Amino acid sequence: MTPASAADPKRWWALAVIALAQLMVILDGTIVNIALPSAQRALGMPDADRQWVITAYTLAFGGLLLLGGRIADLVGRKRAFVIGLAGFAMASALGGAAAGPGTLFAARALQGAFAAVLAPAALSLLTTTFTDPKERAKAFGVYGALAGGGSGAGLLVGGLLTEYLNWRWCLYVNVPVALAALIGAQVFLRDRSGRRGGHLDVPGVLLGSGGLVALVYGFSEAGPRGWTSPWVAAPLMAGVLLLAAFVWWQHRAAGPLLPLRIFRDRSRAGAFATMGLATIGMFGVFLFLTYYFQAVLGYPPVRTGLAFMPVSVGIVIGATQIAARLLPRTAPHTLMASGMVLAAAGMVLLSRLTVHAQYVPHVLPGLLLVGLGMGLTFMPVYATATVGVPTQDTGAASAALTTVQQIGASLGTVLLNTIATGAAGRHSRAHGPADSGMALAEAMVHGFSVAYWCSAGVLLLAALVAALTVRRGKPSQAGSKPSA
């Protein structure tokens, strides 16, 4: 039987449209970071509130992904894709025109909500468009490169727009990109009908989305408030309880928001676990090196963004030129485990940085290893986690994978930042008062070093999980029939 993808002559143009939309979503996770000080000054934003420019996006995105994935399954992937694009463009225009902090926070939350519809639809469209193994490997190589490298590119684009235009263009830039993707969607994407007779699992939405929002909020507040604060402990506890109730309900719901049969295959479950651990370990790179480049080495915003590009380049090479070529004839767990070991080695190199380090001999090798390792890992993870999923569940499976990635990023950022801050404090106390700028920088870099070692440990754990759980070949479709 001829593969479905071979019968679609527009499939590679469809990949370009999907990739453009996905890149926009990934970029927006970091593009505002460098522009935040300028936005804060322009809008008169208090220091205590500035984090909501980031948190509003991550809360809505991470909390509503499962709902967005099921919407894609019910109304159709292309329709959900178009809705997400149009809504994201309007929210971006609203944020760019914001006259006060409240409007900007609301626009960022709307961006996250529409991204939660757009991202699962994009991944499920990719899954159902490319079914031939070799073509699928190439397509997921591109997707994995964007998913891993987009965050670093966002820092560079944000720096360029902020320095040469103004911070508002970090939001306005999404409008022409979304319009181009909307036109491409109408021309190149094949429409796929929704699940006839299906219905939305409202209790599942309330429990699942509520639990995820509570977890993401708790993690985001742990940094500024500390783990013992009731504003951190209460949301985290509520999130765990709500998600436990969500799992219990999914076993009983006639049309579950997240069909648990998706996780019955060991290889698919292992791919999800590998993704979660990889993002926990990876996000320390962007967090700590941003401070290292600007506060220790004195880099301006654009140079800081350029300094991250080797990570993105490494991810692109690892995903498209290595993993995509090897996956059709190599066991996915071999690529995942090898990638995680490479990334861990890069973290060990970064742990050796000092206040007097130079970029090319000391920073660059670690960044390239991290990038190559992530590219080798992300591509087979996406391919393994989504292959063999029944058509009616592709949106839910795509949303679940993206949710794991978002939760891992939030948890990793908070945990590693806590570790780094604690280590820096202990270093200052052990070496006397840190009154000088050099002493503060040395304490900061020491904290980063300890956190990088922890990142390396998490990535090695991810390598072990991949090696032990992900089998050779594709996940089975056991249990893929809808439950009665």
Give a description of the structure.
- Helices cover 77% and strands 0% of the residues.
- It contains 17 helices and no strands.
- Helix 6 (133-164) runs antiparallel to helix 12 and helix 14 (332-350) packs antiparallel against helix 17 (437-469).
- Residues 1-6 and 476-484 have low confidence and may be disordered.
Element order, helices and strands?
HHHHHHHHHHHHHHHHH
Strand content: under 5%
**Strand-pairing-aware structural class:** mainly alpha
The whole-number mean of residue pLDDT values reads 84
Task: Tell me the span between the first and last alpha carbons.
Answer: 30 Å
Largest sheet: none
Low-confidence runs: 1-6, 476-484
Label this structure with key terms:
484 residues; disordered C terminus; mainly alpha
